[in-house]
Amino acid sequence: MILVTGGAGFIGANFVLDWLAHVDEAVINVDVLTYAGNRENLASLTGDDRHIFIKGDIADSTLISGLLAQYRPRAIINFAAESHVDRSIHGPEDFIQTNIVGTFRLLEAVRAYWNNLQTEPRQQFRFLHVSTDEVYGSLSKDEPAFTETNRYEPNSPYSASKAASDHLVRAYHHTYCLPVLTTNCSNNYGPYHFPEKLIPLMIVNALADKSLPVYGDGQQIRDWLYVKDHCSAIRRVLEAGRLGEVYNVGGWNEKPNLDIVHTVCALLDELRPRPDNKSYREQISYVTDRPGHDRRYAIDASKIERELGWKPAETFDTGIRKTVQWYLENQEWVANVQSGSYREWVEKNYSGRVA
Ligand code: NAD
Ligand code: DAU
């Protein structure tokens, strides 16, 4: 079996669902269930004994060591993290605790477990760390996309904490020969995306007749990948990635934020027109920019394609249509995640931004 951390969050839950659909191998899913963790994301696995959910923290060494001893996984995939840049600006401490201390404690428990394995399982074992393109910093308009050899230049508390975790993972390979793999992926979108992030926030706000808050001039560029393509890349790296290597994962889909918002509006205009037949674009509002906002991210995904033969299956057009349709069909999920603490976050992040 494999052990996944953070498997009740956006990408982790998609990964667990995809894994069990593609590979008939059990998953231990360890998630502390922060505001971003949601067992409803895994509701379709109820009664499936290939999925074992454990509520717990990656920084809890006793718990993690116990689970490793009990279940003896052949691989660990570390998704657990605080993941939202705006939250890291309002309060960085949780990011330091989970992304740095948590990854460190997890690595320590894994190192002890791996050291005591017999020769064959020891050779087969893998620790795959899921990271982000944000560790490379921000690109100007004409610079080439990030490759795996780009210098680390993180600019937010979130990306700095992820960079630190990547360095720890690298060091555990170099120093202790722990069999690690690291993936650095660009912006994901798709089902179960928590509506604090750009795409789900725009869909949810549009449907609720609320404003669509575009930071600054809306010309910041992100490189978008449908979440299920990220999941297939992780499966492929786990299967065939070279030990100690880093693989950048992306969909060659660079788009300015404003284009993304326009696309979401156009799809909603088509699939769920406003009662007054005006476009959802009417709801766009330009608001105060994110402090330290990275201007552009772009991933050069040549290495994973060349070495492992991985390519995304979705184009942005097919992926975004599926995503908008998913939100229209899952209004109950949307209502359930908009709890009191979600509303408090929206108030905290948006009330001080001048339109
Ligand atoms: P998310 O915030 O939706 O989910 C994170 C999950 O981790 C939640 O279920 C949460 O409960 C859990 N978690 C948090 N702290 C924990 C802890 N201490 N112990 C155990 N579980 C804990 O995040 P996501 O968007 O699914 O991102 C998953 C991973 O992928 C993160 O490491 C993130 O840095 C990375 N990543 C995300 C993107 C993206 O576009 N979302 C892109 C590249 C990389
Ligand atoms: O690049 C990978 C990263 O992508 C991941 O590591 C992060 O976990 C993930 O959250 C994401 O980070 P971003 O900051 O790029 O994503 P977010 O959805 O928060 O914002 C995308 C862009 O949209 C960014 O330029 C900020 C802008 N934005 C965001 C929000 C929430 C707005 O203009 N308005 C908004 O309300």
Task: Provide an overview of this structure.
The structure is a single chain. The chain is α/β, with parallel strands linked by helices. It has a domain at 2-193 and 225-255 and 297-315: Rossmann fold (3-Layer(aba) Sandwich). It is built from 13 helices and twelve strands. It has helices at residues 10-22, 61-71, 85-90, 93-115, 119-124, 157-176, 198-207, 227-240, 257-271, 302-308, 316-329, 331-337, 340-350; strands spanning 2-5, 27-31, 51-55, 75-78, 126-132, 180-185, 187-189, 212-215, 221-226, 246-249, 254-256, 284-287. It has a seven-stranded parallel beta sheet with strand order 3-2-1-4-5-6-10, sandwiched between helices. A three-stranded mixed beta sheet has the order 7-9-11. Helix 6 links the parallel strand 5 and strand 6. The radius of gyration is 20 Å and the shape is globular. The mean pLDDT is 98.
